[in-house]
Amino acid sequence: MAGSIRGIYTSINEIRQKVYAEVARLSYEYKDGDLSEMEKVPYRIIPGEEAVYRDSVFVERAIVRERMRLAMGLPMRNADEETAVSFGALECAQPEKYYQPPLINIIKFACHKCPDNIVKVTNTCQGCLAHPCMEVCPKGAISFVEGKAFIDQEKCVKCGQCVNVCPYSAINKQERPCAKACGMDAIHSDEYGRAEIDQEKCVSCGMCLANCPFGAIADKAQIFQCIQAIKGDAPVYAVIAPAVAGQFGKSIIPGKLRSMFKALGFEDSFEVAIGADLCAIEEAKDYLKEVPSKLPFMATSCCPAWAAMAKKLFPEQAECISMALTPMVLTARLVKKEHPGCKVAFIGPCAAKKLEASRKTIRSDVDFVLTFEEVLGMLQAKKVDFDALPEIDCMHGGSGDGRAFAYSGGVAEAVVNVIKNMEPDREIKVEKADGLRDCRKLLQMAKAGKYDGYLLEGMACPGGCIAGAGTVQPVNKSLAAVKLHKSVSTRAHSYETPYGDWLENLEERKLDEASQNYAGNVLKQPDENE
């Protein structure tokens, strides 16, 4: 994405990490209903009397307070509310607390009121004789004043033709970064010029919060609640998305992931690539059964933001989205089958997964969703020494194709490989899109009949899950790490999974969302040679 700040470690990342670490520390140390320590945290994160990031140290601390509340799953306060930062916190200090909408929030007094969709002439204009900007303007909005180009904003339609032809690149089109990143056009300006999210349009992909250069946008988290569950009697298992490869730096090789999560208090961990394999098999079967006899095309289902976008904007094509359960849900169900009474925390790159897990039909499967960035805060709170972690048998069981779900094109590739195994002579045409704007174009073309017979893959984040709002590493580094992790898998394709019997038993009741009493083998950590 042009102009994106993704992959660059900034002061915004630093503040977020400090907030997550402090919330995690509060939760690990919490007892007897005492959360008074919350009032001290903003002073630890923003010490001293002088502002570092903004004009006022008081504004900096006020923003930290709201970030703390959101990180604890609490509702954000308005600037005119006279409540303590800990107001309502005791209600959230329980493992059973779910998100209250909205998930994605704008801290209004942190918003810069960025100019939105304005074409401006900069001081590098040379007042050239050719003045191509004036010549191409379809509305006559450009004139020359004192030897420089001048744009009449009343006439300008923001077409950008002048931007494209200026030989000095002296004309810029300014867009609000969060709005530019939003593929749903869900962000507009409020009466004060601050960004505002239309929650009816928002699908919680999180691209706005990942691209806001002022750190004014944040999502709610379950860090506190998950740690409380870890401290409780029921064991908590981590199920970890394939995009985890490389997220915690070179020190955390795959062989150390399980010991890392054990150090945080989790009972054990499993890779969601297991569920990705099962998802690929189910989608392959659906494609062979439904396309083209019943459906003109079939679209993948694993990205909740993509699926939500399709249902909001293309309701008549909604039935073409696969009904397969997502890898997160499939893996969680398998874990809970093996460990009755346990709790499951999905660890991944995605803000939208938080929304998916909060649905009533999914809550019994997935108890918590944490991003990689939030887990990094837990690691800092526990002061985990990565180098000292023992290397034990790695989370093993997912195929290379299952691990490839993490990047754009990987889901479709896995499904196609399963179809080819089932029907080698079947021709499968594939088209993919990543980033919601391109996903919308893809479905618009499909609606027009351009992709009849196709398997369509959509991912809300540009590049796929490795570019999710909760990732830590730059996309290119994550892509390389995931591909390396894929290459060392002892199984290449999803159809080689040892968990196929589970899927067969699950399919008999796949419309019964509440049922978890299906037959199946025992989910275990497979041996390296299995």
- The global form is globular
Give the helix level as a range of percent. 25-40%
Instruction: Work out the number of β strands.
Output: 15
The rounded Rg comes to 25 Å
Please report the distance between the alpha carbons of the first and last residues: 41 Å
Number of helices: 20
Overall mean pLDDT: 90
What are the low-pLDDT stretches, counting only 5+ consecutive residues below 50? 507-530
Estimated structural class: alpha/beta
Strand neighbour order, sheet with most strands: 10-9-12-13
Specify the biggest β-sheet.
4 strands, parallel
Instruction: Tell me the β content.
Output: 5-15%
Oligomer: single chain
Structure notes:
The structure is a single chain. With 530 residues, the chain is an alpha/beta fold. Helix content is 35%, strand content 12%. The protein contains 20 helices and 15 strands. The chain has a 4-stranded parallel sheet, sandwiched between helices. It has a 3-stranded parallel sheet with strand order 11-15-14. Strands 1-8 form a two-stranded antiparallel sheet. Helix 18 links the parallel strand 14 and strand 15. It starts with 10 loop residues before the first helix and ends in a 23-residue tail after the last helix.
Write the layout of secondary structure elements.
Blueprint lengths: L10 H19 L11 H5 L11 H15 L17 H4 L11 E3 L11 E4 L10 H5 L5 E4 L2 E4 L9 H5 L5 E4 L2 H5 L5 E3 L5 E3 L9 H5 L5 E3 L3 H8 L5 E5 L13 H10 L4 E4 L1 H18 L7 E2 L4 H10 L13 H12 L4 E6 L3 H6 L10 E4 H11 L17 H4 L6 H13 L6 E6 L1 H12 L6 E6 L15 H13 L12 H8 L23
Parallel strand pairs: 9-10, 9-12, 11-15, 12-13, 14-15
Antiparallel strand pairs: 1-8, 2-5, 3-4, 6-7
Helix pairs in contact: 1-3, 1-9, 1-15, 11-13, 11-17, 12-18
